[in-house]
Amino acid sequence: MTILIVVVALAVLIGLWWIAVYNSLISARNRVDESWSGIDVQLKRRHDLVPNLVETVKGYAAHEQTTLQEVTDARAQAMAATAPAEVGPAEARLGSALGGLRAVAEQYPDLRAAETFQQLMAQLSELEDEIQAARRIYNTNVEAHNTRAQTFPNSIVAGSRFPARQFFALDSPAERAVPQVGF
After folding, report:
1. CATH code of the domain covering residue 73
2. CA distance 107 to 71
3. pTM above threshold 0.85
4. DSSP letters of 133-164?
């Protein structure tokens, strides 16, 4: 009888452990999904801002069509990307194209002085900061999820139901480069 009680107690403990681990994995997965939606919201705001910025620049620098088209194409590619593996490179391309747009603006003092352009650039700068913050939160949650799912004995419960998530990383060397400042 004692052996039966010990076996039942062990089975109950293992069952409770299994439930606790499973619930913690679901919680970690949901935090990753929620933090990705935070990135998605910020990227949508960025994508909505880009056409206004392009139209403002068009009014001052109409002959810079190549740069403007590159920004428009990069925005379309970024909007079409869905998974972190696709979004990272697409957003890096958009960031690079926006850098080209900033360079065009440097060539036109009237454009730089335009209140609309200044407001749009301030909004873009603020959005870039918010995207960085959202990316940090997402990557922290991905790291926690992956660690929880891959460590033993949690990996037994996780199995293939909780696959590792991808970090949202910069793949573009241009995004990693230190900006040059000249006077």
Report:
1. 1.20.1440.20
2. 17
3. no
4. HHHHHHHHHHHHHHHHHHSTTHHHHHTTTSPP
